[in-house]
Amino acid sequence: MLPLTRNALVGACLAIPLAGCGGSSASTAQKPAAPPASLVPSPTAATDNCGPGPGVLTAVTAALTTYPGVKLETSGGCGSLDISTALTKADVATAQKICEAASTIAYAGAVKNVTVTGAAAVELAISVKGQPCVGEP
């Protein structure tokens, strides 16, 4: 008998009814068990479980209500708190105030740095845990 090539095997498989070449809707194969609930991240756990209390995003959002239009997210796990605004380079002082208000809360949890960006993703203020916020002109 001649050795079969991959193409010959695929052709032979296609010629046999589907039930003979793989699964069918009546397959008795076991589905893998779902992972335990403790291993499945919740939608908010990845973004708002950076402590303390209800989470950094919730606490900082509440503290920044006087600054409309800010958007918060964490990156690098809980390492960075990124604050997006519509501010311009002329608003560096406001960005520093936002940074200070956010870092006071965020640094009580797992966050290690805070960044405030303005329109067109221009960095306006930054801070590292233990240091004051610095404006980026």
Description:
There is one protein chain. With 137 residues, this protein is α+β, with helices and mostly antiparallel strands. It has a domain at 42-135. Helices cover 30% and strands 17% of the residues. The chain has a five-stranded mixed beta sheet with strand order 1-2-3-4-5. Strand 2 (80-84), helix 5 (92-106) and strand 3 (113-117) form a beta-alpha-beta unit. Helix 4 (56-63) crosses helix 5. The radius of gyration is 27 Å and the shape is globular. The model is unreliable at 6-32 and 34-47 (pLDDT under 50).
The termini sit apart by 78 Å
| Class from secondary-structure proportions | alpha+beta
Mean pLDDT: 74
Shape: globular
Strand percentage? 15-25%
Number of discrete helical segments = 5
Spatial ordering of strands, largest sheet:
1-2-3-4-5
What ranges have pLDDT less than 50 throughout 5 or more consecutive residues?
6-32, 34-47
In short:
The chain is α+β, with helices and mostly antiparallel strands and 137 residues long. It has a domain at 42-135.
Topology:
Elements: H1 6-15, H2 18-21, H3 45-48, H4 56-63, E1 71-75, E2 80-84, H5 92-106, E3 113-117, E4 123-128, E5 134-135
Parallel strand pairs: 2-3
Antiparallel strand pairs: 1-2, 3-4, 4-5
Helix pairs in contact: 4-5
